[in-house]
Structures are given as structure tokens and as C-alpha cells.
Design a protein that fits this description.
alpha+beta; 5-stranded mixed β-sheet; 44% strand
Length: 138
């Protein structure tokens, strides 16, 4: 049985790949900061941290940080394109992970535009908090 964080990443990855507006985007499970322009656009789903709080006898509240990172080339309207991308990402993640057993909230959206090269590169990072309740592991 896969770990629940692996399941979150897999479910969100499938939902993003199914979005028509992301049909031309390569899904990368993880990458370094430097992606060459020929590889773009790319999208990735990561779970870099998690908070654990005792909830009741024998269970813990797990607050998993799930991030979706999208990087693409663009022109003068790159921020508008990233805004459109973020709306698709938000809908896909919330629809996929919000259940009776799991709460999912968008905590933060960050956009960065780098115009140092011949073309502008835009990045949107969306941070979601996925809350679930898990039995003690020991």
C-alpha cells in the first residue's frame, strides 16, 4: 500500500495531466532549479513538509504541504498566463483532494518572472495544506 503522501502526489499529477490546458506540459516528479528553455513548459507536484499534531487518543492530525510548481516560457503577458494556469491548478487540486476524510486548502500562490534571457520565463508555485487524521504508526 503506497504512503498517503505518494497517493496525494499521484492523484494530483493525474488530475493535472487530464486538464486540457496542460496537454503540452511535461510532468516532472522533481527537478533542480535550472531547467533549460528547451524543456519548458514543465509542471511538478511535491510534498516537501508535514506538520504532525496529536489529535485524539491514538491519532495524529497531519498537515501535509503539497506544492504544484509550473514553469513556462512567455511574452509580455506571462503573468496573465500564470494566473490562468493557477486557476486550473487550484480547481484540479481541490477537486481531487477535498474529501470527507481529507481537507485541502490553498495557502499561497507565488509567481516569479525572469526576463534575463531571450524570452521571459514564468514560474507559479501553489502551496496547499492537506489535512488528514492518521493512527499512530507505533
Amino acid at each position: 500500500m503506497p504512503h498517503y503522501r505518494s497517493t496525494y502526489r499521484a492523484l494530483v499529477s493525474v488530475a493535472l495531466q487530464a486538464a486540457p490546458s496542460f496537454a503540452d506540459i511535461t510532468l516532472l516528479p522533481a527537478w533542480s532549479e535550472n531547467i533549460d528553455a528547451n524543456t519548458l513548459p514543465v509542471i511538478g507536484v511535491v510534498t516537501p513538509s508535514e506538520r504532525s499534531t496529536p489529535s485524539t487518543h491514538g491519532s495524529f492530525e497531519k498537515g501535509t504541504l503539497l506544492q504544484v510548481v509550473l514553469k513556462r516560457l512567455g511574452g509580455d503577458d506571462i503573468e496573465d498566463a500564470l494566473d490562468d494556469d493557477s486557476a486550473v491548478i487550484e480547481a484540479a487540486v481541490l477537486t481531487t483532494l477535498q474529501t470527507r476524510e481529507t481537507q485541502c486548502l490553498l495557502e499561497e500562490t507565488t509567481t516569479v518572472v525572469n526576463g534575463d534571457g531571450a524570452r521571459r520565463v514564468g514560474t507559479v508555485v501553489m502551496s496547499f495544506r492537506v489535512t488528514s487524521w492518521r493512527a499512530k504508526a507505533f
